[in-house]
Hints:
alpha+beta; Alpha-Beta Plaits; 6-stranded mixed β-sheet; 18 helices
Amino acid sequence: MSDKLGYVVLEVGGIQKYILSTGKLKEMIGGSELIESLSDNYLTDFANNNGLTVLDKIRKPEDNEILPLQRNAGAMHLLFSSLEKGKEFLNKFGLQILEDFPGLPIFGASEECEFDSLGIRNAKFELSNKITDQRNKYPTSTGMQLLPICAEAPLDGEPAIGKVSYGNSSDRDEIISLSSKTRRIEKLLAASRARLREIEPDDEVGADLQWSDDLEEIACGLGKVAFIHIDGNDLGKRFRQELVKVSKQEEKENKEAQDGGKEINQEKRDKNTIRVINKMSTLSKTVKDTTASAFKKGLTECLKYAHFSDRKLVPARPLVLGGDDVTIVIRPDLALYFIDAFVKEFERYSNQAFIEQNKNNPNANRLDKLTVGVGMVVCPTGYPFLKAFDLSEELVKNSKELTALMKNRPSSMDYVVITNDTENDLDSIRAHLFTSEDGLSLTAKPMLLKGDNLAKFVKDSISVSEKLPRSAVRSALNECKKGKEAADKCYSKLKDNVERGLGGRANQKLMGTEEFLRLFPEANGFFYKDKDDKTYKTKLGDYVELNHLLSVHLNDYKEYFKI
């Protein structure tokens, strides 16, 4: 038997675009469950039906055995006893997916490798390049040019294959594509409902919950939702560092053996390889468990403030929940509870896991933890989710750029509120709504989610909303849009009114001078500049914008954020 193994990678191309390219929440849920199940039950069932064994214990695969190196949603890294076995699996598995789930964009590649950390590392690098080449050569699309004889499915822009009916009237018939038909497979929707039970809160909040496939029901009549995308920081870097660290140790041991005229026996090589795969598997499991715990905590906290009617309908629905990648649609007034609780639990859980894993290492960093970047789009329920996702990706990128060079990298967030369905470019939105005539920024986002930063921001926003006259706040923001000179004049006038206790509604508790100067220091006015800022900015636009997120139940926020 050859010592060379077969390394196979399978990846779904454009996961988020595949899930979100439709306008139906039910299809998004089906698409999400399909991708989640591929590396889980689907792989196991396929192996059993084809005389293959998926190994539970990490060791060198033999004959018809498969050693999973990674089984995340939409991505599988598998080792086979030979390259031929890997290629055979890739061919059969791909054809089976094509038959069972037509329209799913999936890429696959194989590479021969040695059963050692260096061989696995090199094969992983080569396979990454192969998958990238495939993606570039055969890019996935949410729509395509159609022949004149083809009809276009309105939901996703792909060629239509037929109609589905809603009710008895033909007026409710809907033309759908092949991808839509796949995403509507009933067993996927049933599996999704079962999976939701695993992430429901354990306490009394989670009793008798009902999940909806209808976006309007999730919005609870508000006409808008929050689309939240969360992505972990530096996960790929962590995996690479683990591989490089063990590979360097192996190279050092090999050199010492060669210099001494010795040879490292195969048993020791295999043990080293198993050790590195174990480390990778442990990290992968830690990420998965951390995300699951954080999601459950976020859901638990936001449901405490959901103000259920008799029917305990969950005003949220996860669309992607795999690895460190999370996408959820949620009622907008609950979004900040979810984000705050998710981030804090994500950091706490991962920190405790790392402490436990390194308890025998006196030099381990006991502050080590996983962190995230958060992007949120608050939009009308009719806003295309694919546009919302593109915006959320830009926002995640912004939030991550804020922390990229920071030591002990913290979590961070950026968000935007869309008020109509014509706004779909972040730069245009910010230029139009959050940039003054002289080029200053009317937003201080992205923001750090560190310590009590979010709580302070919410507290300050509520203070501005409750204690300053609304007309004065609107006027101040309008003057800020004109530029710093106009803003400074407005600031002086508003400060004078605050000091004299003027303005406000009847029985309104007005903001005092001390609090006003804390929010807007006299040395700065409304605009200020941090150490590394290239231009001036103000939080006034953020305070006003936050009103689109906060509910009428302000006391709920005061209770949760301990204001």
